[in-house]
Design brief:
75% helix
Length: 287
């Protein structure tokens, strides 16, 4: 009985510690960005100029860069991760191979982002550069599109794993009932599995979107690092995370440093909201 009470206290303490840690990060970001908040206020979110020399700062180019790379990567991710989820959970009858592939996907998800970034810089960027040259586009290689491809490679294993788990929650009796009524395997997947699991799959994509939103190193290496609004998806740009990684050690003025931390505060708030929404949707999935 005493052991149970101690175990319960440890679990409750761990939960409260996470809340305190999250609150401490939020408050430290707010206090460290006070100079920028006082100087620009809400204008910071709508100003497109970022000029450290003349101390003019605005978040618009980086918000756009972050949204563009995250949305494009999610669009690339959806068909691939959904196909992998369905294949692993429904079509691959050999459970040993299914578990082996699942393990392989989890290993891919664990590759350090800096390794993926190096691969993107030395392998993917030259390929994109050749394609751009053939299409008559200025051959840069790095840019928003290359960063989006790298992000999609990083989040496909994550969203595929969540999708597989959600699809496997559909009761087997439902599937067998549909097959006994004459439905084909394709009709079961299209008419029962995907509609029934839609909320959970959507929640998984939201969590993947949240991860893409805050990815730093890999994106910093292939996005081109240009502090301006990208003219096209092939233009160099900058995300909020890559901006902080690039300029934080070079910030010499208080206002510059404070503005970078305010960028971090915006990134933190949006990432937390996306993750909360995704987890709430997944928790509501009941069959």
């Amino acid at each position: 009985m005493k052991v149970d009470r101690v175990f319960k206290i440890i679990l409750i303490s761990g939960g409260f510690l996470m809340v305190i840690l999250l609150s401490a990060i939020f408050l430290s970001l707010v206090f460290s960005s006070i100079s920028s908040l006082k100087e620009y206020g809400i204008r910071f979110l709508f100003t497109k100029e970022w000029d450290p020399v003349n101390l003019k700062f605005g978040a618009v180019p980086f918000i756009i860069g972050t949204l563009l790379t995250s949305f494009i990567s999610l669009l690339i991710t959806i068909p691939f991760s959904l196909s992998i989820s369905i294949y692993l959970s429904e079509l691959l009858k050999n459970r040993t191979i299914s578990k082996l592939l699942q393990t392989l996907i989890e290993l891919i998800a664990g590759i350090p982002s800096v390794i993926v970034g190096l691969w993107g810089l030395f392998i993917l960027a030259p390929i994109i550069r050749n394609i751009q040259a053939k299409l008559g586009i200025q051959p840069i290689g790095v840019g928003i599109f290359t960063a989006s491809l790298i992000l999609s490679i990083m989040i496909i294993p994550y969203s595929a794993s969540i999708g597989k788990e959600v699809l496997s929650l559909v009761p087997i009796e439902v599937k067998e009932g549909a097959i006994s009524l004459g439905a084909t395997e394709f009709e079961v997947i299209k008419g029962i599995l995907i509609p029934t699991s839609f909320k959970g799959i959507f929640g998984g994509f939201l969590l993947s979107f949240g991860r893409a939103f805050g990815e730093t190193m890999a994106v910093t290496m292939v996005i081109g690092n240009a502090n301006r609004i990208p003219k096209s998806i092939f233009s160099p740009g900058q995300t909020m995370a890559s901006l902080i990684a690039n300029e934080f050690t070079e910030a010499t003025s208080i206002l510059h440093l404070s503005s970078l931390i305010e960028i971090g505060l915006i990134l933190f708030i949006i990432s937390v909201l996306i993750n909360i929404l995704g987890r709430v949707i997944i928790r509501k999935v009941t069959f």
